[in-house]
Structure formats: structure tokens, C-alpha cells
Amino acid sequence: MMPAMKKKCRALADEITSALRALGRGSRQGHRPSAQADFGVYTADLRAVVRDFKARLKEEDGETVQEVGRHLLAEKVTECRQVAYELIAGHPGARELLDQARVETLGRGLDNWCCVDNFCYCISGPAWRDGRIGDAVIERWAKSRDLWWRRAAVVSTVPLNTKARGGRGDAKRTLGICRAVVRDKEITVQKALSWALRQLVPWDREAVEAFLVEHEEGLSSLVKREVKRKLQTGKKA
């Protein structure tokens, strides 16, 4: 990329960061500290920033959008990371450039549920669904020592089974990852497991029911309670 274009990308990332900072309402970090700062931008305001810059980047090539995203990640701010993922996901050229190396680079530094879920919903899940990264990559994440990569493996199954995101139902890959984390003790991973199974119910409830029976002893009470409720009522709670 030419120096002038790199400068343009840096300027765009700075503009996005300034817009987010101005909308911030104070840090809202939860009980588990994150190395990512946060401005406390409400979701509706963040979506407005995404819409604005998505329109401005529409005619740019994919590499330019990815470069803007990399600059945003370097800010180490939760909202900047979210916008980076949304902009890449919303640009066909940027999506087409995603491969294993780029996906894992975009995932560096993940250390909170908000960033992980956004990464999976926008980047890793669709890339996996569309064959840009292979099953072995997600399976490796599921065995990681890093709990956030384990959560990422599980949440990456959600776009496989979300019709609005292009999912068509994929019990084989979803349950393969779920099996890998059945006995994981981290609550963030267990909650992801519950979500993954519940998301699969509309596509293959029999497979989910069989999974619950097969892993009755290993599954946490939280997962069993939430998934059984989904099977019985169609709702989480």
C-alpha cells in the first residue's frame, strides 16, 4: 500500500476514534478487567458511526478497509474494535480478503465477551461458514489455553445457524465444537455453549436433544436448564 493511502487510512481511523470518544458516556467494564479501554458508547450510537463510515468506505477497495480496521484495533479500545469488525464485515471486498492469517490477526488481543462475540459474529463465523477458514482452525481454538479463544470457537458456530446472517444450519460442525468444550469450567465458555446449542434447535432439535442425553453427566446445570427450556418453549427464559 502506498504511503499516501496508508496516511488516508490512519486519518480515517483517527476520525472514527474521535467520533466514538465524543459519544462515550464513561467506562462500563464488567467484573472481568480487560486490557481494552472503553468509551461507554451506547449501541445505537455505535451503529450510527458504523453506518456513516460504511457509506464513506463503500467505494474503497478491500485492502483499504482492512487497513482502516487494523489501525482501529491498534487503539485498544472496545468500541474501535467493534467498528473495525463491522466495517470489514459490511464490505464485500474486505470480506473476500479474509483467510486464516487475517482472521487470527484480527482476533489478537481478544479478552472480553463483547469483543469476542462481535469478532465471531462479523469475522470468524462467516469466514468459517463460507470456507475461508477450515474446521481445524476452529477446533484448535476450542482447545486453547486462552478462555477467550475457546469462547470464540463456540460462538463462531452461531453464524452457521443464524438465518439472518446467511446460516443454513450445520449440526455436524456445531456439535463437533460443542463436544470439545462440554467439560470446560469457565462460565463464559459454558454460556457460549448454551447459546450455540439453542441456536441450532430450530434447524435440528433432534440432534440437540441427542447431545443433551449423550453428555448428561458432563454438561453444566446452566447449559441443561437453558437448552431444555429452549426445546420446550422456544425461548431461553
List the helices and strands and how they pair.
Layout: H1 3-23, H2 43-56, H3 62-74, H4 78-89, H5 92-96, H6 100-106, H7 113-129, H8 135-142, H9 147-155, H10 171-180, H11 187-200, H12 205-214, H13 221-233
**Helix coverage percent:** 55-70%
- H and E string: HHHHHHHHHHHHH
Tally of individual helices: 13
The overall pLDDT average reads: 94
| Strand residue content | under 5%
Rg measurement, Å: 18 Å
Oligomer: single chain
Q: Stretches where pLDDT falls below 50 for ≥5 residues?
A: none
* Strand elements, count: 0
Tell me about the biggest sheet? Answer: none
Shape, principal axes of CA atoms: globular
Structural class: mainly alpha
Kindly, what is the distance between the CA atoms of the first and last residues, rounded to a whole number of angstroms?
Answer: 50 Å
Characterization of this structure:
Helices cover 65% and strands 0% of the residues. The chain is mainly alpha-helical and 237 residues long. The mean pLDDT is 94.
Features:
237 residues, 13 helices, mainly alpha
Give a quick precis of the structure:
With 237 residues, this protein is mostly helical.
